[in-house]
Every structure is written in structure tokens, then in C-alpha cells.
Specification:
Layout (H helix, E strand, L loop, with lengths): L1 H5 L3 H22 L7 H6 L11 H8 L8 H14 L3 H26 L3 H7 L3 H17 L4 H5 L4 H23 L4 H22 L6 H13 L6 H28 L3 H4 L8 H20 L25 H17 L5 H13 L17 H17 L5 H28 L3 H11 L4 H17 L3 H21 L4 H14 L6 H9 L1
């Protein structure tokens, strides 16, 4: 354990401290923003979270107040926010930022440990200075990356950040345990069991995708340790541990789906896409994530991706089949390179496995950038070590370091600009609808903001302009999303009545048809 704390030497601690401050400054513009979107029903309107004491019944009610009782640990943190600071969005967002910064420190320590695993050390023969450089680069890229803005400033996405925290902690504990298993078996076993029996439940209780932690641990063991243990009995027990961790949930899941054959399909009843459309679209979505992770553009960094064209077949759009084949090729390349470049293989498979739940058959939204909060580290673990290089010529190394520095700087500036959009709900909605005019949800949000401005002003001319803008966005939202159209059209009739207008015959006719 002493070796772990040596990672944070005075020089490294100073650099990490500067990085923490830089990250906090990048996010500062958005910390003053309000509760938005799902924050309102899940937090501000959820009376179970409005604690005024630490009584056990109140804590229990708060913990299980999400949906059918999922994510109790995350809900409990929202309740504690309310207990100490009331319904203050700044305090909630500051808490999210602190979790994000903590995750960055855990990531740095994890990367340092990854380079100490037997297969990585044998293939690369790293020195401490180069390892620290790469760990700092990847940590800086992840802390400052704008793809994480929604995880920090969209308060309910604390669930994602907390789950990532315990997954990172679990991977840390596992590697520490494995590195000590041959020298101090009792300590090694205790750390490994801690990663499995403590970190995994905590990750799952924060958000369901925390259940993937055992899979991440398997990737670490298989790719970076190769189940190489001096004691044969200990090796057998290690393999049995993974057989239980991965096999039992797989058997239970298969049994559930066999006995509930319509469970997945039933979730698509209120979605504007089918199961097949989602499955075919997700390979394209994963490549969009990779593009955003490498070269993010402000206009593509958005909370809602409902303007994304769905794949209705392998050739519609034409990029569907290449995207699918590309993912298969990416996975195969990881398998083929696992012995020569085990860390590269781990990064690729970490990204792919991190999307197994949210980018597969389940009836979730097509895309959300916060799904890369943990999985995106896999791509960064591939790119930045390649840029740094282990044994390049001096010119090539300098070019790689310059490119890495430019990328990290780009991430920080983009995050600061994106965070400023989160400083107000109006600015966020208007930016969203300007960048994504084909998004029905951004059209609805823009309509809500214009109508809120209408209610705040008494100026007749401004009211007329705001009313017309509200109506325009509601009409566009109803055109873009037929399933949600009745709600938008009813809203039009309501705001028309405030102006003394007779019901719009065309709106009534559309409602009658639907």
C-alpha cells in the first residue's frame, strides 16, 4: 500500500492540484445554473428527498424514491444535499464536481497501476517518468473533456459519476490485490474481495450499469495478468471467482428472458423507434461517441440526440453496415493485439464493454454522451499513450506531446464554453435548438423558455413576439415527433386561448386524426 501513495509525490501532487483547479475553473460558469429537465421531477418535486432530519424512515424513503426503488445510494446523496443546503442547485452541482475531481484522482492512480501489471510491464518496460506523464495526460484529458459536462452539470447524472467512482475504486483495489497476491496472500485476497464484494454492490446501487464492474475486472485479469499466480490452488480459486461473478448473472439473465420473452419488447411501447432500429443504430452511435471523444465539436455536444437518423436496415443509412463491421474489427484487433499491446486491447474492450447495457437491446434513449463517463476512458487510454510514444525518436515524441497538449487544451476550452450554456435554462435551450433544429425535445424546451419569458413580462409587444415564438416551436415539435404531438398541439390551444384566439381549426383537425 505504501507504493500506492508514492504515486502522489510532491511534484505529482502539485501537478494534480493545478489540474484540479483548472478543471474547477472550466466548470465554474455552469455551477450557478438552475435545476433542469429530469432534475425537476427527480429532485425538486420529489418530496421524499426533502429531508429535515436523519431519521431512519426518512432516509429509507429517500433512498428508494427513484422509479421502482433503483439507485438508492445516488438518491440518498440528493437527500443529504437537501438536508444541508436545501434546494440549492449550486450545492448539488458543486457536489457533482467534487465527485468528478475525485474520479480524476482515482483514474490517475489506476493508470499508474495498469503500467505495473505483468503483461504491460513486460511489453513496454515503462519508466516512472514516462508512466507519470501518460497518467497525467489521460487524467487531464478525462477531467477536462466536454463529453463529461452533462455528468457534472446535469444534476441527476450524479448517478453515472457515483457508479464510475466505485468502478474505478474497484479496479484499483483489484490490481493492488493482484500485485500483492504472491507476496502477501492474505492482504491480496482481502483487496480482491473488497473490489468484488464492496465496490461492485456500491457501483450497482448508484446506477445499474455498475453491475459491469466484474467484467472490467475480468478484462484486467485476462489481458494484464493472464491468471498467472504462483500458487496453483490460488489460481484455481481466482478462476472460480470469475466463473461465479460472470456465469451466475449470465445464467440468471438468460433464465429471466426465457421466462419473460416480451419484457424487452414491451419497453418500446412509448418509444419512437423499434427494437431492431435501436440495435441497428447503436453501432453508428458508438462511432459518434469515439468521434466526440477524439475531436469534440460544440454543436455535437448536446443533451438530446433525438434528431439522429435511425437505421431501418443494414443499408439505410449506408453507414450502418460499415459501422457494425468497424466495431467487429475493433474488437478483433483488440483480441489479436492483446499480447503485444495489452493496454491498447484493454482500452478498446473497456470502451466496448462499458456500453453493453446502455447501447444494446434495452429501450433507452438512442444516445447520451454521459454514457462515456467511464467507458470513454478506454479510448483515451489508447490515444494518449500512442501520442506520447514509448520508444520514438525525439522529433516524433515532441510532435506527439504537442498534439496531446493541443487536444487537452481544446477539451478544456470546449468544456468552459459548454458549461457557460448550462448557466441558465434559457441559454441551454436556445443553444440546443439552434444547434439541433430537428430535435423535437429541444423544440419543446425552447417553447417552454419563450413561454416562461412571456409570463415574466408585461410589455405587449414583447408578449406578442414571445407568444409567436412559443407557438412556432410547439408546431415544429409536433411535426418532428408524432408520438408527442398531441401534448404540443394541446399546448398551442392553451396559449392561443390566452390571446383570445379561437381554437385553430388545423390544430383541431390534426388532434382529431391522432
Amino acid at each position: 500500500m505504501t507504493q500506492f501513495f508514492r504515486f502522489f509525490s510532491p511534484r505529482i501532487a502539485l501537478l494534480l492540484g493545478a489540474l484540479v483547479i483548472l478543471t474547477a475553473l472550466s466548470y465554474a460558469p455552469g455551477l450557478s445554473g438552475p435545476f433542469v429537465f429530469d432534475d425537476i421531477p427527480q429532485i425538486t418535486e420529489n418530496s421524499f428527498l426533502h429531508l429535515d432530519s436523519l431519521s431512519l424512515p426518512a432516509l429509507q424513503a429517500a433512498a428508494f424514491s427513484y422509479g421502482t426503488g433503483e439507485r438508492p445510494l445516488s438518491m440518498l446523496t440528493f437527500a443529504l444535499n437537501h438536508l444541508f443546503s436545501g434546494l440549492d442547485p449550486f450545492a448539488c452541482k458543486l457536489s457533482n464536481l467534487l465527485i468528478h475531481l475525485t474520479n480524476g484522482l482515482l483514474l490517475f492512480a489506476l493508470i499508474r497501476l495498469l503500467y505495473q501489471t505483468p503483461r504491460v510491464a513486460a511489453s513496454i518496460q515503462p519508466d516512472a517518468a514516462q508512466t507519470n506523464l501518460i497518467a497525467l495526460m489521460v487524467t487531464a484529458a478525462w477531467l477536462l473533456h466536454p463529453i463529461n459536462v452533462t455528468t457534472v452539470l446535469y444534476i441527476v447524472q450524479r448517478m453515472t459519476a457515483l457508479s464510475a467512482l466505485f468502478c474505478l475504486l474497484g479496479m484499483l483495489l483489484y490490481i493492488l490485490g493482484r500485485l500483492r497476491l504472491d507476496r502477501n496472500r492474505r492482504l491480496g485476497v482481502a483487496l480482491i474481495l473488497g473490489s468484488v464484494c464492496i465496490a461492485t454492490p456500491l457501483a450497482f446501487l448508484s446506477k445499474e450499469n455498475g453491475i459491469l464492474l466484474p467484467l472490467y475486472l475480468f478484462l484486467i485479469e485476462w489481458l494484464l495478468f493472464g491468471f498467472a499466480v504462483e500458487n496453483a490452488r490460488c489460481c484455481r480459486r481466482l478462476k472460480m471467482l470469475f466463473l461465479v461473478m460472470l456465469g451466475v448473472p449470465a445464467v440468471l439473465a438468460i433464465g429471466f428472458f426465457i421466462t419473460h420473452p416480451g419484457w424487452i419488447q414491451d419497453g418500446y411501447g412509448n418509444r419512437p423507434f423499434t427494437l431492431m432500429e435501436r440495435v441497428l443504430t447503436e453501432p453508428r452511435v458508438l462511432w459518434i461517441y469515439i468521434k466526440l471523444l477524439l475531436l469534440p465539436r460544440l454543436s455535437e455536444l448536446t443533451l438530446f440526440h433525438d434528431d439522429l437518423m435511425l437505421s431501418s436496415g443494414l443499408s439505410v443509412p449506408w453507414t450502418t453496415l460499415p459501422a457494425l463491421l468497424g466495431l467487429i474489427g475493433l474488437a478483433l484487433s483488440a483480441l489479436l493485439l492483446r499480447r503485444r499491446w495489452p493496454l491498447l486491447a484493454f482500452g478498446i474492450l473497456l470502451f466496448l464493454s462499458g456500453h453493453l447495457l446502455e447501447s444494446s437491446v434495452f429501450a433507452l434513449e438512442i444516445a447520451h454522451q454521459h454514457r462515456n463517463n467511464l467507458a470513454g476512458n478506454g479510448i483515451l487510454l489508447v490515444v494518449f499513450p500512442l501520442l506520447a510514444g514509448w520508444r520514438p525518436g525525439p522529433d516524433r515524441r515532441q510532435i506527439g506531446l504537442v498534439l496531446a497538449t493541443i487536444l487537452i487544451g481544446l477539451y478544456g476550452v470546449t468544456t468552459a464554453i459548454s458549461a457557460s450554456d448550462w448557466s441558465s435554462s434559457a441559454r441551454l435551450a436556445l443553444t440546443g435548438v439552434n444547434d439541433h433544429p430537428a430535435s423535437p425535445r429541444w423544440q419543446q424546451q425552447a417553447a417552454q423558455e419563450f413561454w416562461a419569458a412571456y409570463l415574466r413580462t408585461e410589455d405587449p409587444d414583447q408578449r406578442t413576439t414571445l407568444y409567436e415564438s412559443t407557438r412556432t416551436h410547439l408546431l415544429e415539435a409536433s411535426r418532428l415527433d408524432p408520438l408527442a404531438a398531441p401534448g404540443s398541439l394541446l399546448s398551442i390551444l392553451q396559449i392561443d386561448s390566452t390571446q383570445g384566439h379561437a381554437p385553430d381549426s388545423q390544430v383541431l383537425a390534426t388532434l382529431a386524426v391522432q
